Amino acid sequence: MSAALIGGLALPAQAEELTLGGSATFTTDYVFRGISQTMQNPAVQASIDASYGIFYAGMWGSNVDFGGGPFGQDIANLEIDYYAGITPEWKGISFDFGALYYTYPGAYDPGGEFDYWEFKTAASYTFGEAFTVGVSNYWSPEFFGETGDADALELSGEYAFSNKLFNFFTPSVSGLVGWQWVDQGVDYTYWNAGLTLGFMENWSADIRYWDTDIGDATCGGPNCDARVVGTISASF
């Protein structure tokens, strides 16, 4: 009886296991909500993730370029983000409730603290194993540069083709439209659309068009202009 009881208690623990993974990415421009974070130059990015059942955590990093300070120093050249959350499901709807902490190690930020928190609430649903629609909201109590309360709402869609292209690529098309509101900043709309080609199981190539409704004068330069971004990434 004791052996049976111990075995029964062990079964739920065996149903879940810790999974580790990560990614490496090269992109022609690091675009965040429609705005270039690298002065329209390339970026190298990497992530490492851990998941256990519905729980996940990880960290992500990229080079950035926020221009020069008053004494010729770089304002920021590195971003490292930390995140954790849960991904429950209910009646075919996938949810994501998480927290993200954006950091800029070594940044020169006399005008306000760059590091900030965001809290994510998202849901998505897939129709017929091909077409996925989603909605995401990111709320920050004190946004980048201490600009106050901020909120970003995004609507997205993706269609994954069932047939391979040239018997090698697994294609999908996707798009997104988002709105950003900041207490002491610029409220604006951003959007993207692109084609992703998966290959060799863990690799993907993406070509994407980005744009915003922010003018050069408001943006302080061309970093908010329309652009086409190419990205190649590998996951493990």
From TrEMBL:
It holds the Pfam family Gcw_chp. It comes from Methyloceanibacter superfactus. The lineage of its organism: Bacteria, Pseudomonadati, Pseudomonadota, Alphaproteobacteria, Hyphomicrobiales. This is Porin. InterPro entries: CHP02001.
